[in-house]
Design a protein that fits this description.
The protein has 716 residues and is α/β, with parallel strands linked by helices. Helix content is 36%, strand content 20%. It contains 18 helices and 27 strands. Strands 14, 18, 19, 20, 21, 23, 24, 25, 26 and 27 form a ten-stranded mixed beta sheet that branches. Strands 10, 11, 12, 13, 15, 16, 17 and 22 form an eight-stranded mixed beta sheet that branches. Strands 2-4-3-7-8-9 form a six-stranded mixed beta sheet, sandwiched between helices.
Length: 716
């Protein structure tokens, strides 16, 4: 555990064993346990279980690339400081052990349940020993024609040193006996699997039974014909392997003159960061895995011998098959808000604000907002932030079209959005070529706020329209990430949005902002103030109530304020999908705090902050989690929901169903472990996501509001 987590506010009355804060890294791994539990759940369609299995693989890749890499760098940098390295080393040891347990569960599930059940449903993953004569002949022909010409085995000797191995690529180590063509006894060869080759290969339909389809993995194809690559040599043993590397980019933003050019150079280097994990096949001989550990300078605790392909994430191709719809979740069509069905979105917004709830409601209105602005001759300017737009984006194309039509288009593109850097660089270049003003945010801070502003000439002068959201401007992720967005022409909110854009482009300190909470300036202070206000209310004998929903909760200052509020008698419910460092349910410290996590069909991504505030029912939606990085090292925005009707919607859709969920909910115990919420005898199952699909999906959109009666939260 980090040293900073060993201290706790002196006002806290009880410090539990293990400290008042839970370890962030171990909490992240607890989240992946919950995702893996979805893959283990037999009530979930089979291909969706496989998808959850691949999500765990992707999450663990990123955990090693980012979190483990950061801990290793911290350990090395602080090696001379007493105490700190021991704490970091302890975290690394525990994280490695937890990862090992998770990965063992993954492969056991894959081999013993997923693969057999796929076969029962006509999807055959054929190992070498399972192929019949016709299938073996086809695989041999495929290898000779499509694979062998692209392979380059490298026999290691002084003239052929150990090659550079790309991050997360598929490779093979081969032990050879006998002499090479020149009479020398080179004993080890390394071979990369070219990235242009498919990792999952579908056999012709005539080689499968009538109702099924057969696949084999590239690794299996290569291993079946390994001897063909080393003519005259005996292949003694071999293994596939994969190395995971540090993937944090580092650019000295104070020194570089052009951040985009510097980042383009750094992107290539990411593939060769220092190694943090080695995966090998379970049958890999110890002396070969030891050789690889030595070459990559990896500690044995981060060696993982797996019983199957070294990258289960490649199985996503099977999960994404267009066939076998009966093995997937039933199709869902999001609803379209009736208030925006007309041809003019701006006239609709002049009548009232519109709240969008994705993916239960369509993301198309957000695209329409920018597309109509691009085509409208009355629109003079468009300003937008971009964090993760994706490789293909109608919204980005609309911004490009607007710039080509001569409108003033300003786009703040965050080049340092991890793993989206290349896509963002490409969009930045295209926007500039179209004539848009492209800005890369603020040096040292990531611009994570989700804002779009349209300035339109109307009868009384320029009028501002804005979209503010909790999620990215990405139409693909909007189909399976839960997020809220607000479309508004509220004078005060849109004026604040304009000030944020001026601040980001001019780098001047923002003027007085009246409605938004802006990081790194006011967001943390306002969150802590709102929490403390609830504590003051509770101390005065009135109900204090906080509900907050977010991805992660790790900031010390916010957690301490929540502990103080709990001690003052405030009832607090936290819905935290991922990492949570707050330890709930500790008598005298956090006994009034409950923490739950929802893991279901959609990825919970919205951030909602609710404070009862003596029946004022303050609600803020935000792009920011309650993490130190979001509050102090990013440009983030939290924006108010002012309309009473829209406040009720946020409570009714964004909070209440999640507090009642007993299908996808996990409750965090004071010991740091999560336990699945189970229905009691005779109790009906309540699934928040399913309820929202039924409430907001196509042809089921309510378009009506409930009356605002007694406090809808305190009454629970």
């Amino acid at each position: 555990m980090d040293m900073k987590h060993k201290a706790i506010d002196t006002e806290a009355r009880t410090i539990p064993e293990g400290g008042a804060f839970l370890n962030r890294e171990l909490s992240l791994l607890e989240f992946n346990r919950r995702v893996l539990a979805q893959a283990e759940d037999p009530s979930i369609p089979l291909l969706e279980r496989l998808r959850f299995l691949t999500i765990v693989s992707g999450n663990l890749d990123e955990f090693f690339e980012v979190r483990v890499a950061s801990l290793l760098a911290q350990h090395q940098m602080e090696a001379g400081h007493s105490g700190v390295p021991h704490a970091v080393h302890h975290t690394l040891e525990r994280a490695s052990a937890e990862c090992r347990h998770l990965i063992d569960r993954q492969y056991k599930l894959f081999n013993q349940q997923i693969v057999p059940q796929l076969a029962e449903n006509g999807i055959h993953m054929l190992r070498r020993s399972e192929r019949n004569a016709a299938q073996r002949a086809w695989v041999k022909a495929f290898f000779d024609k499509e694979v062998r010409p692209l392979l380059t085995p490298i026999g290691l000797d002084p003239a052929h040193p150990f090659p550079r191995v790309v991050n997360k690529s598929l490779n093979f180590i081969v032990e050879l006996a006998g002499k090479d063509a020149f009479g020398r006894g080179t004993g080890i060869a390394i071979m990369k699997a070219p990235r242009v080759l498919p990792r999952v290969i579908r056999l012709p339909s005539e080689l499968s039974d009538k109702k099924g389809e057969s696949y084999c993995l590239l690794s299996s194809v290569i291993q079946a014909h390994m001897a063909d690559l080393f003519t005259g040599r005996e292949v003694v043993s071999y293994s596939q392997f994969r190395v995971t590397r540090n993937s944090d980019l580092w650019v000295d933003e104070d020194e570089v003159k052009n951040l985009r050019q510097a980042l383009q150079s750094e992107l290539h280097a990411r593939n060769y960061g220092f190694a943090v994990r080695l995966e090998v096949g379970r049958a890999c001989p110890p002396h070969l895995s030891n050789f690889l550990l030595e070459q990559f300078d990896i500690d044995r605790s981060r060696l993982f011998a797996v019983d199957g392909p070294v990258n289960l994430g490649r199985m996503l191709e099977i999960a994404n098959t267009k066939d076998k719809s009966e093995l997937k979740f039933p199709p869902f069509t999001p609803g379209f808000p009736p208030k925006l069905t007309g041809p003019d979105i701006f006239s609709a917004l002049r009548r009232q604000d519109v709240l969008l709830h994705h993916p239960f409601e369509s993301f198309q209105p957000v695209i329409d907002f920018i597309q109509q602005a691009a085509a409208d001759p009355c629109v003079a300017a468009i300003k937008q932030t971009i964090y993760r737009a994706g490789m293909n984006s109608d919204l980005m194309e609309a911004l490009i079209a607007a710039a080509r039509r001569g409108k003033e288009v300003t786009v703040i593109v965050e080049l340092m959005a991890r793993f989206d850097e290349e896509a963002n660089i490409n969009w930045a270049e295209r926007l500039e070529q179209a004539g848009a003003q492209v800005v890369y945010g603020v040096v040292g801070l990531k611009t994570h706020a989700k804002l779009a502003l349209v300035l339109r000439r109307e009868e009384n002068g320029l009028r501002r329209y804005a979209h503010l959201g909790t999620g990215n401007y990405n139409s693909t992720t909007a189909k399976f990430y839960t997020d809220f967005g607000l479309l508004t022409c509220d004078d005060e909110i849109t004026a604040d949005v304009n000030e944020v854009f001026i601040h980001l482009t001019s780098l001047t300190r923002p003027k007085a902002i009246n409605s938004l909470w802006l990081a790194p300036f006011s967001l943390q202070k306002e969150v802590v103030r709102a929490i403390r206000d609830e504590a003051t209310i509770a101390k005065a004998g009135r109900p204090g109530r906080i509900i907050a929903k977010m991805n992660s909760l790790t900031d010390d200052s916010v957690i301490k304020a929540l502990y103080e509020a709990s001690q003052a008698g405030v009832r607090i419910d936290l819905i935290v999908r991922g990492a949570c460092s707050l330890r709930p349910g500790v008598k005298g410290l956090s006994e009034n705090i409950k923490v739950r996590s929802i893991v279901g069909r959609f990825l919970e991504h919205s951030r909602i902050f609710y404070f009862r505030n003596d029946l004022k029912h303050d609600i803020y939606l935000s792009s920011a989690d309650w993490m130190n990085r979001n509050l102090f090292r990013r440009v983030e925005v939290a924006f108010p929901v002012r309309s009473p009707a829209l406040k009720r919607r946020v409570l009714r859709e964004g909070l209440h169903p999640y507090l009642k969920d007993n299908v996808n909910a996990w409750e965090l115990g004071s010991d740091g472990h999560y336990r699945r919420k189970k229905t009691r005898s005779g109790q009906k199952g309540s699934c928040a996501q399913q309820q929202l699909m039924e409430m907001l999906g196509a042809d089921k959109h309510p378009n009506k509001e409930i009356e605002h009666g007694p406090d809808p939260v305190a009454a629970r």
